[in-house]
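Researcher: Structure for this, please.
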Amino acid sequence: MNDRAVEPDKKELLKQLKIDRSEPEKGAGTRPLKWFVLIALVAGAGFVFWFFDIPGQGSLLSVSTAVAEATSQRNLDSGGSVLDATGYVVARRQATVSSKSTGKVLEVLIEEGVEVVKGQLLARLDDSIPLAQLKLAEAQLESSRTGLEELEVLLKQVQLDLQRTQELAQRNLASQADLDSDELSVEGLIARLNQARKEIVVAQYSAAVQRQVVEDMQIRAPFSGIVIAKAAQPGEMISPVSAGGGFTRTGICTIVDMDSLEIEVDINESYINRVYAGQPVEVTLNAYPDDRFAASVIAIIPAADRNKATVRVRVGFVEKDARVLPDMGVRVVFLAQEARVPEQTPLRGVTIPADAIVKNGAGHQVYVVVADQAQARAVVIADRRGATVRVIDGLQPGERVVDKLSDELLASLNQGTRITSINTTERP
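Model: Predicted structure, token format:
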């Protein structure tokens, strides 16, 4: 009986654990959605104000800026350019040193980058056969000299015989035939003696040739310079001409005279009238874009290339520099004669674009970018060249100024409008 009373109680407890799936309380499930929509509207409004720069508090004005650069010779000379071109450094004296005859390399005494002087020994070839031929020529020369000495002795003998025959002929003790025979013997020996002397000269020349051949087995530098390429190794065959195949070298090394470096530039024939001999030139190596080298036009080659419609111009450096190497690419600026400024002229101040300067009464001013503000600052101008101005007081190198100033932009800057830089101009 008690068990039956407990069973209904369990059923009641189970009913209480069921989830009520009836309609929720009005407004209880919509609150999160309302908050989400409200946040999205606020964020969207902020984005519109920021992106479209709507006038009002907190708006940013986009401006173009430029960096104040320390004044250098480059800043000033660029205004005197009459023509820009590109070219290459070339060496007027460059040689691939080889031998006069085919031979085997015994020793190479140089490496790339080594500086050599005129006459310095670069390599030695196998000279065993030329030495043997030299000894043979010297032996033939010695033999010719010995033969000459023998003929001289015989000449003395026949001259004595002729003298005795003449004395006997005066006393009628010798016939005329004996006298003529002795005279002819003397003349014959004199002729043989002259021939022997000439043979000695020929032998001397032959020995000299063989001596030169032996000397040519030692390859020497034709001029002073720097070795830029080593082409042969000990044990290889070398020949002054290509002997066919890939086992015979045609040179020992390549030497460049660094004092003969100059620049070759191909100028379009439409602009060749802007170039003349002796014209000052400014050279910038592609490897050192921040350094400039003084140069001048050596000559204009009096011939045009019909295929490229160009004329070649030779440009020489005023001073030699170890950084200049053959085949380097260069940028050449041909200057007007009156625009030339002496090298190493000390100049002070900074260089900025002329569009960043505003005339203010009796002076000038610029707008310096500080954070998101443009602050007006008075400056002192020294001179103006082309599109740039040299400022000697009021600006420091590296400071940014507002560029491309207009009346509308000036009005906004004077109202203290916050700015953002969209483009920073730097001189190349």
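Researcher: Any notable elements?
Model: The first strand starts at residue 60 and ends at 67. The radius of gyration is 49 Å.
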